[in-house]
UniProtKB/TrEMBL annotation, chains A, B:
<dbReference type="InterPro" id="IPR028939">
    <property type="entry name" value="P5C_Rdtase_cat_N"/>
</dbReference>
<feature type="domain" description="DUF2520">
    <location>
        <begin position="127"/>
        <end position="251"/>
    </location>
</feature>
<dbReference type="InterPro" id="IPR036291">
    <property type="entry name" value="NAD(P)-bd_dom_sf"/>
</dbReference>
<feature type="domain" description="Pyrroline-5-carboxylate reductase catalytic N-terminal">
    <location>
        <begin position="5"/>
        <end position="91"/>
    </location>
</feature>
<dbReference type="Pfam" id="PF03807">
    <property type="entry name" value="F420_oxidored"/>
</dbReference>
<dbReference type="Pfam" id="PF10728">
    <property type="entry name" value="DUF2520"/>
</dbReference>
<dbReference type="InterPro" id="IPR008927">
    <property type="entry name" value="6-PGluconate_DH-like_C_sf"/>
</dbReference>
<dbReference type="InterPro" id="IPR018931">
    <property type="entry name" value="DUF2520"/>
</dbReference>
<protein>
    <recommendedName>
        <fullName>NADP oxidoreductase</fullName>
    </recommendedName>
</protein>
<dbReference type="InterPro" id="IPR037108">
    <property type="entry name" value="TM1727-like_C_sf"/>
</dbReference>
């Protein structure tokens, strides 16, 4: 396998995990850029490489530039950098690949579908990676890189990747927010979030085999009006929770009235 | 350990799992009652016992009657049965123990905090069980039973149990509904739900160690307005999903503005 010189533009959760994993595979991390010095330095130190906070001093020496910034910062940062004929890649679920066409001749997308937190290890082999590129040569490079990291690599166009990202926001961010709301409520009642952990695991484990529609339980799907009313009344002093309880219960009930 | 004769009133998911587990521990399942013959027969057959669909022929021979009905059916069914001085127990998260006082002298609650689906095995040892009873003698019986089944047994009053149940609805039913909405959306885009399974597992695994507030990722917590707007616009033809996307994103953002 060819080993590449890679520069990271961005030093957040995705950049941290991806750069470390690529380094493990033998690629050389030549520089980290971030607008905040603390993040840039922290990631560069962990990779034993250099960092910069200025777009003007971004290295010319990399073969591949991987952009892992929040979407709204991408244009602002990239417009200040020249990439010549180097390969420019972003990791965003929702940005179309075409946003890169104005900054580079060779470009592509490398999207790992996972929730990354800095201090938490993940098994990259299990992470589905979705790639797309501006030419078949570039696609080959990204597919090879992805195959070094993961057992699940798929070529996917920008439109479908965006759909996948929307679904991931529901399945991950919104599911986690349900946990967070449960924790917030328990804390007002002097009960510990810990007690919910086996339930949360089983809820996720069930849908590893079942379709979520077949895995649903609880008062909303049974349309147990007494419970639902009594829960809503109990939540009357926490209007944010009450609103989420109401909209989710209605949505569950309606979803199960729809044709299978 | 004393072995009891137990009758089940109800033959749904909770009754199925709990009766089978109690039987494994050596207790005798003497009868199953359900309003629908199919459920009553199915559970009774699996327990090698008898069933009835008529409250008039409910056995007098049990030591303990365990009620696992939907909450709204409890009064209707119990008002037709005489329990004398037998121990009457319900498994509901939200019904207070006191609803049983008009039907029996000895009563209590046995609440396993888990999501049960009929054809799915669960490890009862890991399921937290919450008990409460009308006297210390009855409490001893229920604690002993619970300890035979699980490594996590807690005495909890009706008010706190209800709070726990509300939190469980968020952490389990609403989280599962997030998976269901993700699945529904992917199906309209010819993408498979399966692809989200590693993400769903990691989301649940993260909060086995982290507090959910520290585990959150995604566009809402970053307040990445471009993505949020573009996702909302993409969902314009699925108003149920659009509404949930909007309310969850707002709630995530507001939650992270609150003081830790």
């Amino acid at each position: 396998m060819k080993k590449y010189k890679i520069a990271f533009i961005g030093a957040g959760n995705v950049a941290t995990h991806l750069s470390n994993e690529l380094k493990k595979c033998g690629h050389e991390m030549v520089q980290v850029y971030s607008r905040t010095e603390e993040s840039a330095k922290q990631l560069a130190d962990s990779l034993h490489t250099t960092f910069t906070t200025s777009t003007e001093t971004i290295t010319k020496e990399a073969d591949i530039y991987i952009v892992a910034l929040k979407d709204s910062a991408v244009d602002q940062v990239l417009s200040k950098i020249g990439f010549g004929d180097k390969l420019l890649v972003h990791c965003s679920g929702s940005l179309p690949m075409s946003v890169l066409s104005q900054y580079a001749k060779n470009y592509g997308v490398f999207y790992p579908l996972q929730t990354f937190s800095k201090n938490r290890k993940v098994d990259f082999k299990q992470i589905p990676i979705f790639v797309e590129a501006s030419s078949s040569e570039n696609l080959n490079i990204l597919e090879e890189l992805a195959n070094e990291l993961s057992e699940s690599v798929t070529i996917l166009n920008s439109e479908k990747r965006k759909s996948l990202h929307i679904a991931a926001v529901f399945a991950c961010n919104f599911a986690n927010h349900c946990y967070a709301m449960a924790a917030k409520y328990l804390e007002t009642k002097d009960l510990q979030f810990e007690i919910l952990r086996p339930l949360i695991m089983e809820t996720a484990q069930k849908v590893q085999e079942l379709h979520p529609k077949d895995a649903q339980t609880g008062p909303a799907i049974r349309f147990d009006e007494n419970i639902i009313k009594s829960h809503l009344s109990e939540l009357k002093e926490m209007s944010d929770l009450q609103e989420l309880y109401n909209s989710n219960s209605k949505s569950i009930f309606e979803h199960h009235q729809e044709k299978q």
